[in-house]
Amino acid sequence: MLKDLIATETVAPEKCAGCGSAIRDRYYLLVADRAWHNQCLRCCKCLHTLEAELSCYSREGNIYCKDDYYR
């Protein structure tokens, strides 16, 4: 899930799917084909951060923790 961001002048920085800001960190999360700051990856229902979780779930473009996904 971690992806190394190549810092070159010719590559535009990725935009975070959570906050919309440019990702300038060396590492970021790539979930559901979208880039996220570590602290921005959260469940859309309970808002629990998911950066330390082993898995997260996606449905209709929303990100869920395991409990909320199965509810």
UniProtKB/TrEMBL annotation:
It is found in: Nucleus. The keyword Lyase does not apply. Its main location: nucleus. One of its GO terms (biological process) is neuron differentiation. Residues 14-71 form the LIM zinc-binding domain. Keywords: DNA-binding, Homeobox, LIM domain, Metal-binding, Nucleus, Zinc. The lineage of its organism: Eukaryota, Metazoa, Ecdysozoa, Arthropoda, Hexapoda. GO terms for cellular component: nucleus. It comes from the Eukaryota. InterPro entries: LIM_Homeobox_TF, Znf_LIM. It comes from Anopheles quadriannulatus (Mosquito). This is LIM zinc-binding domain-containing protein. GO terms for molecular function: DNA-binding transcription factor activity, RNA polymerase II-specific; metal ion binding; RNA polymerase II transcription regulatory region sequence-specific DNA binding.
